[in-house]
Automatic annotation (TrEMBL):
Transmembrane segments: none annotated. This is N-acetyltransferase domain-containing protein. It comes from Bacteroides coprosuis DSM 18011. Coiled coil: none annotated. One of its GO terms (molecular function) is acyltransferase activity, transferring groups other than amino-acyl groups. Residues 3-155 form the N-acetyltransferase domain.
Length: 166
């Protein structure tokens, strides 16, 4: 599978927000039209140059957002098209995003925040070499969730996860 990454366009943001719906506990990731997050996701100004669409053989299958700070830390968020989740594609998808941001921005640390219920994502990032930093509680749509912040230490322009995942 050949992956490509491009700056997210407005039609792609609308496609993701309107049509990507997840089952069970993963409905947490649905972009509910009544939330502030939905409005930000659809705002070109809010997305700035931080959001990228990922394509597999021309099909929109996911996205990444990378928010950089002055200390060389990149906060990474991502999502995959619901029909692509839970099938093992994350092991190609995540390293692709990590490689992209390392080559683009040369961060020292990549940081992710994941809800504790998302065992699939937590397992994946652990396999890729992310390390837990701390747990915290956060309200999302008036519901409390516990998150685990994890970091990935970048070594030079190379990434430290196993080459077998590339």
């Amino acid at each position: 599978m050949k992956l490509n990454i491009l700056p997210m366009t407005q039609p792609e943001a609308k496609e993701i927000a309107a049509n990507w719906h997840y089952d069970g506990v993963y409905a947490f990731y649905d972009r509910d039209v009544n939330t502030h997050e939905f409005a930000q996701f659809l705002s070109v100004q809010s997305r700035r140059d931080d959001y990228f669409s990922v394509f597999a053989d021309g099909e929109l299958i996911g996205f990444f957002s990378f928010k950089e700070n002055e200390k060389g830390i990149v906060d990474m968020d991502c999502g995959m098209k619901p029909s692509w989740t839970g099938k093992g594609w994350g092991i190609q998808f995540m390293p692709f995003g990590i490689d992209f941001i390392v080559k683009r921005s040369h961060p020292s640390v990549i940081r992710v925040d994941l809800p504790l219920f998302n065992h699939r994502a937590l397992s994946l990032v652990r396999r890729l070499g992310f390390e837990p930093v701390h747990e915290y509680s956060h309200q999302v749509d008036k519901h409390p969730y516990t998150f685990l912040q994890m970091v990935y230490w970048v070594r030079g322009d190379e990434t430290s996860y196993h080459k077998e995942f590339k």
